[in-house]
């Protein structure tokens, strides 16, 4: 049976790209009983006698998936953050980075609206770029680097876009592929954030890779992450933790903690450590979610 990738899901149909052709399929009836919902990005086994009448027989194991946008097998995520309107937030940025790390999705930080920023804000963004690149994250400033610097990352990858509301995700996608005609949401002045402008998801061929044409989530709650998992999502903490006195050090109240020492010496950003403590408390105080039995 042929193996293809779902590139679009709409109204109960799944569209599969296979050897240069697109096949319209439905999921087998027993998928619901097996609690399987195919997602855009899934690799599937399917059968089809023609391009409009096929069935998905099986869904191969995913390496990851997201709920918003509903996409599977993602290689990298472009975190779009504006430096003004709305103002840049390292707290929100770190939330995205932690969440992507948990999903094994490589992050690319892209800062928009640099042309609207004051000289002081531009300088602040340059400093943030240096700080985060030192940790190991690629950071692109829209006015400083070209779109080509971003699209160079796309080759042979499945890429999704996400970031704060109103940061310009749809605008950026439209610049990358003008024929998308994504609706651009207005900024709500009273709320200081953008309106949701998402729609169904489709993977499009761009710059020798696949890009989800729908911007993803704009805010993050740590609904599944554990306290043991959280420290592993800060690369600079992982690097320092081999010198902590305790192997499972949580970098809070433990003595001879190398992470805390590096925060004190400025080798680890104090803002990153503060956000870690905040995220830790959020997870620790999270109310349990009870799933209803069917």
TrEMBL record:
Keywords: Cytoplasm, GTP-binding, Hydrolase, Metal-binding, Nucleotide-binding, Ribosome biogenesis, RNA-binding, rRNA-binding, Zinc
Molecular functions (GO terms): GTP binding; GTPase activity; metal ion binding; rRNA binding
Residues of the CP-type G domain: 63-220
Binding residue positions for Zn(2+): 244, 249, 251, 257
Cofactor detail note: Binds 1 zinc ion per subunit.
Domain (EngC GTPase) ranges: 72-218
Location, primary (coarse class): cytoplasm
UniProt-listed InterPro entries: G_CP_dom, NA-bd_OB-fold, P-loop_NTPase, Ribosome_biogen_GTPase_RsgA, RsgA_GTPase_dom, RsgA_N
Residues where GTP binds: 112-115, 163-171
Known EC number: 3.6.1.-
Known cofactor(s): Zn(2+)
Class of this enzyme: hydrolase
Subcellular location as annotated: Cytoplasm
A cellular component term, taken from the record's GO annotations: cytoplasm
Family the entry assigns: Belongs to the TRAFAC class YlqF/YawG GTPase family. RsgA subfamily.
SUBUNIT field: Monomer. Associates with 30S ribosomal subunit, binds 16S rRNA.
NCBIfam families listed in its UniProt record: ribosome small subunit-dependent GTPase A (TIGR00157)
HAMAP family: GTPase_RsgA
Annotated function: One of several proteins that assist in the late maturation steps of the functional core of the 30S ribosomal subunit. Helps release RbfA from mature subunits. May play a role in the assembly of ribosomal proteins into the subunit. Circularly permuted GTPase that catalyzes slow GTP hydrolysis, GTPase activity is stimulated by the 30S ribosomal subunit.
Protein name: Small ribosomal subunit biogenesis GTPase RsgA
Species this chain originates from: Vagococcus teuberi
The gene coding this protein: rsgA
